[in-house]
Design a protein that fits this description.
Length: 278
């Protein structure tokens, strides 16, 4: 599968999460501890929003292993952002090519995914034909993840992200039933419009891939008053990850099975995720 992280908070250099933690995303590209595969070497991508720049995000995507990408290292030490997504890919069967690397972008939206649609080749035609003609031309690659993104856009991602992703999941499951494919959907997803960040954890068999979020920074400062890194972060800083970036006791909380969460100024929220029939 894949590993990913999503960051929202005080502006930081991207390398602070990609390279510096003990179990950074780059380390996970070689030595994942909780993924299906230990190695995630089929591409890497980062999507970020400028601190003072335009609302549309910028993308960097490469097809080589993250651990050897010198351009990514240069970017990481020079780009600062208060909201970014990063992803390392382990292909589930589709080609290793730039257009298949996450995150995916449409307008000001970013989307990244860990998981798969079972027997995607059998279901692909029915799924793709349901994409709204307005969004269809933006599908550039061949992954199930990008089709999921465009289905969510079709079902109203820009207006009501939670309902749109629930409709997307319900539609995938209904198509799979028609084709006799059991337990078709496995996903952890991060998506953002540049202001708010949503995360989803769901699978048809209710055994979803791992997903964690950091404990509130204010609480961590009380636990670790001498940790200088925590004092550089705002109280509203949130990091959502496929697996923890370190071993600081109490720093990471598992996202519940079949749930969604939103990171937004003024208060985060968590709710149950229930696929909806189209």
């Amino acid at each position: 599968m894949c590993r990913w992280l999503a960051y929202s908070g005080s502006p930081i250099l991207i390398e602070e999460l990609l390279y510096k933690p003990r179990y950074s995303l780059i380390d996970q590209s070689m030595h994942s501890r909780m993924g299906v595969e230990t190695t995630n070497g089929d591409g890497v991508g980062v999507g970020w929003y400028g601190v003072d720049g335009p609302p549309e995000p910028t993308l960097f995507r490469g097809v080589g292993p993250a651990w050897g990408d010198v351009n990514l290292r240069e970017l990481g030490r020079s780009i600062s952002s208060s909201l970014f997504l990063a992803h390392i890919r382990a292909s589930t069967g589709t080609a290793v090519q730039q257009t298949n690397c996450h995150p995916f972008r449409f307008g000001r939206w970013l989307w990244q995914h860990n998981g798969s649609i079972r027997e995607f080749a059998r279901l692909k035609r029915d799924l793709v034909l349901a994409v709204d003609p307005a969004f269809y031309p933006s599908i550039a690659g061949s992954t199930d993840s990008e089709v999921m993104f465009h289905l969510a856009l079709t079902f109203g991602l820009e207006d009501d992200p939670v309902r749109a992703v629930e409709r997307m999941a319900g539609f995938v499951e209904s198509v799979a039933r028609r084709h006799g494919v059991p337990d078709p959907l496995q996903m952890t997803v991060a998506t953002t419009d540049g202001e708010r960040l949503w995360a989803f954890r769901y699978s048809s068999q209710r055994e979803s891939r791992s997903l964690f979020v950091n404990t509130a920074v204010s609480a961590l400062r009380e636990l670790y008053p001498d940790n200088e890194n925590l004092h550089r972060l705002s109280d509203e800083t949130r990091i959502v990850v496929s697996e923890p970036l370190g071993e600081l006791p109490g720093a990471w909380q598992p996202v519940p099975e079949s749930s969604w969460g939103i990171v937004v100024k003024g208060g985060d929220r968590l709710g149950p995720f229930r696929p909806l029939e189209r």
